[in-house]
Amino acid sequence: MNGNKEKLVVIGNGMAGISTVEQILKLSSRFDITVIGTEPYPNYNRIMLSYVLEGSKTLDDIVLNDLHWYEEYGITLHMGTTVSKIDSDTREVVTTDGSRVPYDKVIIATGSNSFILPVPGHDKQGVVGFRDIADCNTMLDAAKNYKKAAVIGGGLLGLEAAKGLVQLGMEVTVVHLMQDLMERQLDSQASAMLKAELERQGIQFKMGAQTSELLGGERVEGIRFADETVLDVDFVVMAVGIKPNIAVARESGMEVNRGIIVDDYMQTSLENVYSVGECTEHRGVCYGLVAPLFEQGMILAKHICGVDTAPYEGSVVSTKLKISGVDVFSTGEFIDGPEHTVISHKDEWKRTYKKILLRDNVMVGAVLFGDITDSAELQKLIKQQTEMTDDLYASLMGTGCGGHKKTTSVETMPEDEIVCGCNGVTKGTIVDVITNQGLTTVDEIKACTGATRSCGGCKPVVEQILQYVLGDNFTTGAKQGICGCTSLSRDEIVAEIRQKGLQTTKEVMNVLGWTQPEGCSKCRPAINYYLGMIAPDTHEDEKESRFVNERMNANIQKDGTYTVVPRMYGGVTTPEDLKRIADVSVKYDVKAVKVTGGQRLDLIGVKKEDLPKVWAELDMPSGYAYAKSLRTVKTCVGSQFCRFGTQDSMAMGALIERKFERLDLPAKFKYAVNGCPRNCAEACTKDIGIVGNDGGWEIFIGGNGGIKARLADSLCKVKTDEELIELCGAIMQHYRETANYLERTSEWVERVGLESIRAVVVDDIQERKALMERIEFALGHVEEPWQKAIRNEQGENKLFHGIEVTARP
């Protein structure tokens, strides 16, 4: 350990603890971090266990931070180790094997355990909970040998387990004590619709059933209920709830109730010991969902790093059901009482249901079934305690964003009349951008003004205004498709994907009526990108829809060999990495090693069949030189070495590159970070250029040094590193969501307008944070492509030893 740093020990290697660590790493380097986890795995996404169970993902697919990540950040990781207590007298964390780890600060993130019903027979073979990878593996093994399963518990976790076991070929009955499924998240109406849909998918139900005994010898053979009826089964999953894991806190003498009691900065009753996640009790509440633990972690990270932060005041929780073919969402209050005003709509033909609850005309809760398009908007409105208005009602209940019907005469509409009630955009504003900025599509108007960005209900009126202003030019200007295969614009395609829940490129082409059933080289990659941008957590990337360089994770040369470009964060490397590059280059007969303008090394002339071996022996991340992604972050030496440097540009460049690497973007993307205004890293020709000064940083956007050269525009100045990172993330996500596929930022800035971008990412603090949250969510679902290819031996053989791919002349 580094003696100059504070010793931070994190007890728990799950999502809550490591998410907090990630936030701390972004804010400060003051800690020497040790992580102790009971499971024998690195940090993985527990939310994705249902996908592992149904077979669509493996453990490797859901690992969030592999072992290399811990090494990269100098984190000491103890896997398969359990902490017994915290010795506050000696300031040491004590493990069950007697080891002692000294600390200055401790974060407890021990999560929760499955609650196993204490009925006779609960300890028989074939009875498991559903909480971790070990449970998943047990269930996968059981599905190979047994046919009849029961899942006790009709909540979120139980239904996910049931669907996974059905997918594995088992006959599954969900046993639930209550008459409604997910009664803690859904009302009776939504619950009944959910049950009917799951029955169509093959799940059976026994409702209102109280389990009294598990029957059988050593292995479970049946369930006896309180009414003396029996269900024959040979496998039982207990999913009746969770209980916070407070064993360490109790043994350490901390104040506990149901969970570990904390204040608004996650401080426990023990000095310098904090708690976060499912093991924590804040203001009498223990949260069992992922969003609150991330909110807690962000506040704790700022507090522990000495950064000003608002206190944690609790979370407005929401729930989405992660079962294919079933869309369910709830947030806030969901059971209506005498004090509520209820807004609801049910469509039995489309199997959709929407209910919004008001108290004193303020939105306090919502339930959606079948169509959850409005889920993000509703959660935001309820969290902000928004008052219901006619315009908001119209947008949420499908009658148009300003309450206008499609037949409204836009010609007679006053200039100051609001068209987009969600974002407060008037007719006059829309007419002005069409007339003065030459905008010709709904997509362009959305990017510039925000109209249609939220609920989309005002889109018909915006189109009418376009037609009114453009006249005869409307058909050619506003209705031009993304390629010859379709007349649909980028904006329309994205909207249809969201509304209809389309999941694959072929599905998009089929449902939206492509003239060419297989599409073309222009639309296939674009659709694949839009699908991944919209649903980064569920979209399965379609390699066949990508360009050859992206399929191969390397740049093809005219002789059919490839160029491999390893990542060098901020243009900085180590002697060990340089030696490794040299050794690999000699071993695999690399034709040339070239220093690039982006401060990296190209290994030119690698044979296709050697690519996986080269990646494995380099043991470095991909530099993404082939991808529509973050390519490079060019830096000067900055304040670390330069006598003119005012900011640490190398450290900031490496931080930005590590944070935003691997994320798909509409086009390739480059940064430059300068330590002073002398601009040695050439910020003026990068997508985002950053220049340090005595007071902080200045951000430039939209630069390009290629065929269409363009000097970047000054966007804003910030004082802190945290503001800089947040703005960079917001800019990138705004670009991801509004740019056309293959549109560089230089073109995007000119089309959308610098002032429009500034209004969204600089002036609108709330929208900036929302953009940052969305890019953080997307970043949570990216994966290192070289390591993935190395692991996927079958894919490796097929891709790198199969059909030859020739270079384009």
TrEMBL record:
PANTHER family: NITRITE REDUCTASE (NADH) LARGE SUBUNIT. Residues 318-386 form the NADH-rubredoxin oxidoreductase C-terminal domain. Gene3D superfamilies: 3.30.390.30, BFD-like [2Fe-2S]-binding domain (1.10.10.1100), FAD/NAD(P)-binding domain (3.50.50.60), Sulfite Reductase Hemoprotein, domain 1 (3.30.413.10). One of its GO terms (molecular function) is nitrite reductase (NADH) activity. It comes from the Bacteria. Keywords: 2Fe-2S, 4Fe-4S, FAD, Flavoprotein, Heme, Iron, Iron-sulfur, Metal-binding, Nitrate assimilation, Oxidoreductase. It is an enzyme of class 1 (oxidoreductase). Residues 557-619 form the Nitrite/Sulfite reductase ferredoxin-like domain. Pfam families: Fer2_BFD, NIR_SIR, NIR_SIR_ferr, Pyr_redox_2, Rubredoxin_C. InterPro entries: BFD-like_2Fe2S-bd_dom, BFD-like_2Fe2S-bd_dom_sf, FAD/NAD-bd_sf, FAD/NAD-binding_dom, FAD/NAD-linked_Rdtase_dimer_sf, NasD-like, NiRdtase/SiRdtase_haem-b_fer, Nit/Sulf_reduc_fer-like_dom_sf. Belongs to the nitrite and sulfite reductase 4Fe-4S domain family. Signal peptide: none annotated. Residues 418-467, 482-531 form the BFD-like [2Fe-2S]-binding domain. The lineage of its organism: Bacteria, Bacillati, Bacillota, Bacilli, Bacillales. Residues 627-766 form the Nitrite/sulphite reductase 4Fe-4S domain. PROSITE patterns: NIR_SIR. This is Nitrite reductase (NADH) large subunit. Residues 7-280 form the FAD/NAD(P)-binding domain. Its EC number is 1.7.1.15.
